Each structure stands twice: as structure tokens, then as C-alpha cells.
Amino acid sequence: EVQLVESGGGLVTPGGSLRLSCAASGFNFADTWMSWVRQTPGKGFEWVARIKSKAYGGTTEYPAPVRGRFTISRDDSKNTLSLQMNSLKTEDTAVYYCTIGIGREQSLDHWGQGTLVAVSS
Amino acid sequence: DIVMTQTPLSLSVTPGQPASISCKSSENLLYSDGKTYLSWHLQKPGQSPQLLVYEVSNRFSGVPDRFRGSGSGTDFTLKISRVEAEDVGVYYCMQSLHLPPTFGQGTKVEIK
User: Fold this and answer.
1) With contact defined as beta carbons under 8 Å apart, do B22 and B11 qualify?
2) Exposure winner among A86, A93, B55, B62, fewest CB in 10 A?
3) How does DSSP classify residue B36?
4) How far is B11 from B23, CA to CA, in rounded Å?
5) Cα dist. B23→A104, B3, B107 in Å?
6) How far apart, in whole angstroms, are the C-alpha atoms of residue B70 and residue B57?
7) Tens of each residue's pLDDT in chain A, 121 residues
């Protein structure tokens, strides 16, 4: 059974940092492209990062709103996906989901349970 | 970015009756490989989303056959042939043709 379990969410002040983790199991993590997607009541779902498998160079991609502030990474030896979030803004407040895939190359077919990040002073 | 627009935003359905949700994209979602990158996801109350349909009409593993996706180009539909109580939640379409992937605003389905 595929499982994606996020952790690391919490309350942080604007300008602060937070690191999210996603423990993956039940599938071949090393061969899988992974992503983070966030959800807010106001803007709905927003993709925030994607990382390809090592076979595809482990390339990372980000949308403009988080580029330069967020860093996605993976540890295939531990089946773990991470999202380092720096220079956090109030508009980064959201539930963050770890997902399997997103995009043409690998469809988004599983979501984690989500972890809440609140950025507030 | 590709804009995804869903209608209606909410739907109240009698159990056993059909339901239909429309999703329109601002660009044609057909790729040169012949596939159309439109998927449907359901977020049940208090849960994370789950994939229902990918590439317009392919039901994901374990999804009941009362769910049917159709459409092409920029116009897509998700139909539930006979709504059951467990189908309540918010349905989202998503395009994955180009980065960034984008989502519709959601259609809330309730039971009468």
C-alpha cells in the first residue's frame, strides 16, 4: 500500500524557515518523481515544487512565487522527500501535501495526508 | 498559466440520481503524444485529495465505474451515474500538460 506521511509543519514568523519531510513507502521511491502541492482556502491548490528521479538527473522545478526561497530534495536511501522553506511569507500559509508525480511524465496519483504551515507574527 | 474553470461550484444531489461537473481549460490540453492531460481529484470532508480519473477518461485503480470522465481539447466533464452518500466532497479538475500544473476552483457535491 502506498503511504506518504508528511511532518514538520507548524507556526513560524514571517521571514523564518521551516523544513517539511515526507516519509514514503509502498512503491519504488527512487524511480518516482515527487512533488509538493499546497492548499489554501483563498487560492485553492498550488503546485510548489517537483523533483525528478536520479535517473533523470534529480532535476528540481519551482513556480515563480517560491523559486529562490523553497528547495525540494530527496534521500532515496531513506525514502524521504523534503521541502526546505526559507524567507517565509504570510501568503505561504497553507496545508502542504507530498504527492507522487505531477505533470505529463508522471501523473499525480497519490497524495499524503498533508501538514499545516502557518506563517504569522 | 493555464486557467481551469469548473461549473457549477456546488451541487446538491438526491442519492441514486446522476451528477455532472464541467471543467474548461484556457488552452487545449492535447499533447503531441496523443494524450490529453486532464485529471479529476476528489477531496472528501476532512481528507486529503484522491485521484479519480486521469487522461480524461481513465479511472484510477479502485475507482467505481459510476464515475466517468469525458471530453477533449478544452472541455471536459465528470459524470457520476448514481450518486452515493460516500461521493460527497469537493471535486477538482487539474491540467498537467504544462508546468505549472493548475487546478479548477472545485465543485462541492452534497447529498439532498
Assistant:
1) no
2) B62
3) B
4) 14
5) 19, 10, 10
6) 5
7) 999 999 999 999 999 999 999 999 999 999 999 999 999 988 999 999 999 999 999 999 999 999 999 999 999 999 999 999 999 999 999 999 999 999 888 889 999 999 999 999 9
Chain B positions in Cβ-Cβ contact with residue A110 (cut-off 8 Å): 51
Report the chain B residue with the minimal C-alpha distance to residue A45.
Answer: B103
* Residues of chain A contacting residue B60, judged by C-beta atoms under 8 Å apart: 109
B32, closest residue in chain A (CA to CA): A104
Q: Are A45 and B55 inside 8 Å of each other by CB?
A: no
Reported residue count of chain A is 121
Q: Do B94 and A45 touch (CB under 8 A)?
A: yes
Q: Which amino acid is at B39?
A: S
Which is nearest to B52 in space by CA: B92, B20, B110, B105?
A: B92
Does residue B57 sit at the A interface (CB-CB below 8 Å)?
no
How far is the alpha carbon of A111 from chain B, nearest alpha carbon, in Å?
Answer: 6
Query: Do residues B51 and B67 lie in contact, with contact meaning Cβ atoms separated by under 8 Å?
Result: no
Give the Cα separation of B15 and B18 in Å (integer). 8
Contact B48 A97 (CB under 8 A): yes
Kindly report, residue by residue over A91-109, the tens digit of the pLDDT. 999 999 999 999 888 889 9
